[in-house]
Every structure is written in C-alpha cells, then in structure tokens.
Design brief:
The chain contains three helices and 18 strands. It is mostly beta strands and about 350 residues long. The protein has two domains: about 170 residues, Leucine-rich repeat, LRR (right-handed beta-alpha superhelix) (Alpha-Beta Horseshoe); about 150 residues, Ribonuclease Inhibitor (Leucine-rich repeat, LRR (right-handed beta-alpha superhelix), Alpha-Beta Horseshoe). A 14-stranded mixed sheet has the order 1-2-3-5-7-8-9-10-12-14-15-16-17-18, with no helix packed on it. The chain has a two-stranded parallel ribbon with strand order 4-6. Strands 11-13 form a two-stranded parallel sheet. The longest helix has 18 residues. The protein is elongated. The chain binds 2-acetamido-2-deoxy-beta-D-glucopyranose (3 copies). The site of one 2-acetamido-2-deoxy-beta-D-glucopyranose has 2 residues, from loops.
C-alpha cells in the first residue's frame, strides 16, 4: 500500500515538474527531436492573456513565444528578459496596441530570427532597436510608420570606437562583433503603413520586400539601389502611385516577381522602367491604369514568362514560328509577347 502511494506521489511530482514553467493562461508545447530525443524546444503561446502578462517567465529552451492580442502598449527594456529569452528564435507581438519599442527591448534576444509586430500602432522605431540581432524575417505591416531607415540596425553615437588592426586580422574579428555585425534581414513586410517614399535599405540582404498599401506617390530612380538579393517585390494597392521613374529597379538583377497590381493611378510605363530586371519572370499589372505595354519590353526582361494585365487578360512569352535556317551562326532572338487580347503591345 505504501509503495503504491509513493508511486502516485512520484507521478504527481513528475507532472508538476513538466508544467512548472508554463505560465497560467499560456499554452506550452514541447517538441523533442534528435537521437533519443536529446533536444527539445518549447513553444509558449500566451496570446489573449491580457496586458499584465509581461514580464513572463518562460522555460529555458523556449524557441517560440506568442504574445499577440494582449493590449500591450509599450515594449520596455525589461519586458523580454530572463533565462528562457536567450534561446528565443521567434517572437509574435502582433495585434497589440504597441506604440513604442524601447531601444534595448530586444537586445537580449541574441538568437531572434523572426519578429512579428504587425497590427500595432507604431509610428517609429528607436535607433538601434534591431542592432546586433540575427533577425531574418520581420513583419511590421499595419502600423503607422512614416519612415524606416538603416538606423534601426545601428547604434548611433553610442557604439564603442572600432579598433582596426589590419596586421592582426582584427578587421574580421571586429566585423563579427554583434554590435557592428551587418543586418541579416531577408524578409520585410511594411504593408499598410504611412510611408510616402520607398525606405532606403541599401546593403540589407533582403530577398522579399512588401510595401503594399502605403501612400507612396512616386518611385524614384535608384529607389532600390543595392538590393541585389531581392527576389520578390510587392508594390500593390498604392492608391497614390502615379509615376515610376526610368531605372528605378536597375540594381534588382535577381528579382523574379514584381507585383504592381491595383495601382489605379499608374497609367503608363516607359520601357526604361524595366531596365536591369534580367531575371524577372512574373509581372503583375492587373487592375492598374496601364492599358498598353511598350513593344521592346522583352529586351529589358529576357527571362519574362508572363504579364498579368487584368482579370483574364495576360501576355505570355512565346517562340515565334520561323523557318529553319541551316546556315545561321547565332540564333536570332525571336521571342515575342502574345496577349489574350489585341492592341496591348504598342
Ligand atoms: C485596391 O486598392 C484599394 C485602395 O487603393 C483597396 O481599397 C482595395 O482593397 C484594393 N483591392 C485589392 C483587391 O487588393
Ligand atoms: C496579381 O494581383 C492580383 C491582385 O493583387 C492578384 O489577385 C493576382 O493573384 C496576382 N496575379 C499573379 C499572377 O500574381
Ligand atoms: C474570367 O474568367 C472566368 C472563368 O473563365 C469567368 O468566370 C469570369 O467571369 C471572367 N472575368 C472577366 C472579368 O471576364
């Protein structure tokens, strides 16, 4: 009998241990992997718990923390601190009332790769608030941002002076220092903000950039300068966009998808707008004001496969049927655009 009781007490002890660190109201899930389940990662979802949830103790091996829909107003320097925060790879702060993020709020999250701050009330981000973080994916959509610049990745004025000692290979060591490391950001969503111009993000290794639903009225020459890793650019539903200057996209040699749909004030496009887009495959102009396309468009975009112009109207690249010539040295370029309706190519 007493052995039986002891066993039950032991089981109870185990159960208590397993949930010990899960905050009331949160849902914790442990995923084990590796040989003999030697690694485990915990996902902690504290969405909808309420504004008093932070600062919240989390298990030591937490990789994901969800804090959405909690009416949080400020992300303070002390809110995201504690033992479990050093392993955090992903943080969801979406759908709160956040209007302020202190400059050191994320500074202890040394392994943070994904950050969701969408659906909040941010009108600016403090200098250096992303500095030294390995962030790869950031969602800032549906806020009130009027501008965004490289200053979010650097600490202005406060950084230690950098000692450059070339003889000792110290240059490499200095550049790997977390406070001076270059941004790693690959995906940035800024849809639904108050941006009036394309933010200057040169040197950021972005592969995906979304600027939909912003009051951008002009895209200037060199707006996307140095964004040579960009693969997908979304510039859709910009109600005030009327002008895209020639050569605006000229550095985007790896861009494959360009979405310019639902820009009703955009009525014409000079063929030099597409200069440099040598990898572009898909161009979406559906529901824009553009009704015709310049006939030399393929010379700028040799990889183009299709252009969507309106619902059910698209143009595709096709091979022109030509008689076979036995003696030509170089094959003549004979790709043409074929559209569902006539009169589009002018
Ligand atoms: C197109 O843009 C307008 C604003 O200009 C927006 O209200 C509408 O929802 C957009 N439509 C689509 C299909 O995204
Ligand atoms: C083009 O954009 C429209 C509206 O945003 C979208 O519904 C459609 O799926 C897009 N088409 C392609 C081919 O990407
Ligand atoms: C587009 O095509 C679909 C299916 O073929 C059709 O149901 C729809 O009415 C068409 N839309 C327009 C605007 O022609």
């Amino acid at each position: 009998m007493s052995t039986f009781l002891c066993f039950h007490v032991f089981l109870l002890f185990l159960a208590v241990c397993a949930v010990r660190d899960c905050h009331p109201g949160c849902r914790c899930e442990v995923e084990s992997f590796g040989l003999f389940d030697s690694f485990s990662l915990t996902s902690v979802d504290c969405s909808g718990v309420g504004p008093d949830v932070t600062p919240i103790p989390i298990p030591l091996d937490t990789s994901f923390l969800g804090l959405s829909s909690n009416s949080i107003r400020t992300v303070t320097d002390s809110m995201l601190a504690g033992p479990g925060y050093t392993t955090l790879a992903s943080l969801d702060l979406s759908s709160n009332l956040i209007s302020k993020v202190d400059s050191k709020a994320f500074s202890r999250l040394r392994y943070l790769e994904t950050l969701d701050l969408s659906h909040n009330s941010l009108d600016e981000l403090a200098d250096g608030c992303f500095s030294g973080l390995p962030l790869a994916e950031v969602d800032l959509s549906d806020n009130r941002l009027q501008e965004l610049g490289l200053n979010i990745f650097t600490v202005r004025g406060r950084g230690r002076p950098v000692i450059v000692d070339v003889s000792n290979n110290l240059v490499r060591a200095v550049s790997r220092n977390p406070h001076t490391s270059p941004p790693n950001l690959q995906s940035l969503t800024l849809a639904g903000n108050q941006l009036e111009a394309v933010p200057r993000l040169q040197g950021v290794p972005l592969r995906y950039l979304n600027l939909d639903r912003n009051p951008i009225s002009r895209i200037e020459r060199d707006s996307f300068v140095e964004l040579k890793d960009l693969v997908h650019l979304s510039l859709s539903s910009l109600p005030q966009l009327s002008t895209i200057q020639p050569h605006s996209f000229r550095d985007l040699h790896n861009l494959q998808v360009l979405d310019l749909s639902n820009n009703t004030k955009l009525t014409s496009l000079n063929s030099d707008v597409f200069h440099g887009l040598v990898s572009l495959k898909e161009l979406n102009l559906s529901n824009s004001g553009v009704m015709s396309l310049p006939n030399n468009i393929l010379s700028h975009m040799p990889s183009l496969r299709s252009i969507t112009l309106r619902e059910n109207v698209s143009c595709r690249r096709t091979q022109k049927q030509e008689q076979f010539h036995r003696h030509i040295g170089l094959p003549k370029s004979n790709k043409i655009l074929t559209c569902d309706v006539t009169g589009i190519i002018s």
